[in-house]
Amino acid sequence: MKLAVFDFDSTLMDGETIDFFAAELGIEEQVANITEQAMQGKLDFYESLITRVNLLKGLEYEKVVKIGKDLPLMPGAYETIKALQAKGYKTVCFSGGFRVGTEPAKEKLGLDADFSNILHHKNGKLTGLVGGEMMFDFSKGEMIQRLQRLLGVHRTDTIVVGDGANDRSMFKFANTRIAFCAKDILKKEANIIIDTKDLTQILDKI
Q: Quick check: 43 pLDDT over 90?
């Protein structure tokens, strides 16, 4: 068995989920600035996540769900996932973002699993609170080790694909490390770099 783990925001999905939510409140620029700094490794990921989600307080949860279902997938996402599965890979998504985005994408793409965070809501609106499996800078590294042990997959049969600083922790546990349209901080950890928004380019590199 082999394992391919993809980041979600700006990797499997073309954009940042939280920016789409923030646009509904007219604070997209403010939230996007914090996201950018976090992805460059200039801010603690956990603190940046808490700060950004708090800014979404009061947003109608129904809108959040609708946006999550309609997020634009990255060009080549369908083809790449199907090709990897045909080669015997289990395909998984790790996201410091949110289940309302990753779960619909998992269904559309036929991924084997998604691991992400959950936006707390009450009385039909976001409370500004968040919890889940991918809250910290080290979360992806911990989860990939768990999956490798569970599935009996060695790092030599593991592919990781990401774009930002919080993907570094999972890059430590894979021999094939793909920086996809990535920040410089992640490119330094990669052995394959793709700078074009076309996930099928991965297939020529592995």
A: no
Distance between CA atoms of 130 and 150, rounded to whole angstroms? 27
pLDDT per residue over 66-76, tens digit each? 999 999 999 99
Report the domain count for the chain. Answer: 1
Per the structure, the complete domain to which residue 110 belongs is given by 2-204
Could you tell me the CATH number of the domain that includes residue 186? 3.40.50.1000
Q: Within its chain, how far is the Cα of 152 from the centroid?
A: 23
| Residue of 9, 114, 163, 167 marked active site | 9
Phi, psi (rounded to 5 degrees) for 12: -75, -30
Q: What is the pLDDT of residues 182-205, one digit of tens each?
A: 999 999 999 999 999 999 999 998
Mean pLDDT, all residues of the chain: 95
Instruction: Report how far residue 44's alpha carbon sits from residue 56's, in angstroms, rounded to the nearest whole number.
Output: 19
Strands 176-180 and 158-162: parallel
9 is catalytic: yes
Confidence at residue 206, expressed as pLDDT on a 0 to 100 scale = 87
User: What whole-number distance in Å separates Cα of residue 19 and Cα of residue 28?
Assistant: 5
